[in-house]
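dumping this here before i forget
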Amino acid sequence: MRKRRGRTSRVRRRRLCGGSESRGVNESYKPEFIELKKWLKDRKFEDTNLVPACFPDTGRGLRSRTSLQEGQVIIALPESCLLTTDTVIRSYLGAYVAEWQPPPSPLLALCTFLVAEKHAGARSPWKPYLQILPEAYTCPVCLEPEVPLFSEATESIFSYSAFLWAWCTVNTRAVYLKRGRRPGLSAEPDTCALAPYLDLLNHSPGVQVKAGFNEETRCYEIRTGSGCRQHQEVFICYGPHDNHRLLLEYGFVPPQNPHACVHVPQDMLVKYLPSTDKQLNKKISILKDHDFIENLTFGWDGPSWRLLTALKLLCLEAGELPCWKKVLLGEIISDTNEKTSLDIAQKICRYLTEDTNAVLRRVSHMKDKEMALIDQLTLVETLWTEELKILQASAEILSRLQTAFV
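structure:
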């Protein structure tokens, strides 16, 4: 039986869910959701706007029963439903946490509690929530576990794989809720709270929402910044993240992410510059001093302004170097400088395209031989395929820009 992976498996075949693409397939009749809704009701939460459903592209999520208007509260989860470090401190683990030295971080305390409660099974008061959590995650940290983390005496329960599951649960599903330092915990920021049911909401980069804890209602609320039609999936936005960040933090790669980009390594900046340039070291030093050596990218709209600016400075001829400040301010120094920097950007783009195609060929070859890793390889393939599309789009844009200097 295929393990459910919740929001962490965005690369899905449409046949898994079937049904209408916009409406999804209602899952509220399933025993685990019936039990969860009863558990939430006992904690003073009842929801009339949302219903759990399975969608072809995003998997398990929440869809709207009615149309949602801009500014409307999507969901308001009472404080009694949130799993925080207060929950841990008040539990049977609280006494043990107080004795740990050095004091554990808030994140470690939450992870430990999750592992212990999952092991408790039906005896855990959090069972209705725990049983709808993904059984495994596709975050890169989970792909190849190597060594145990805890002592042998408790490794059957607090194993490395169990800790990874708990860590990814907190990292991928927690909402931001800043709290003061709790006794027995380290001084690291305490900002994570698990929010049952609310955490079924999936990510869409084009959605705007307002989220936070309402001190008056004592609920964690999410308000939509745009409308949503009846029976459509309701989305939130985890932030304007590129694909690498989304994969590392949440374990999925969305198609056509407007924030996706391809990062250019530092050594690529100088790969196509003349080796006879005696001022190269000085140019690189200027870029480093003014923070123009990192976060240089290709995006859907071509090379970033930062990338082109860095290349323009590196392409300055000997007599033009005194004008480097004007370059960083966005001024045009000469047509020759503009053309040379575009030519080098195109060469870098082609090199990265060839490298990406080579990786995709290797992944395709591995998929034919490593059937047990097919899900992980498909996820990696999606990441590189999206990068290839970005590079191809950038190459076309660069070609149009270069025609101005022909």
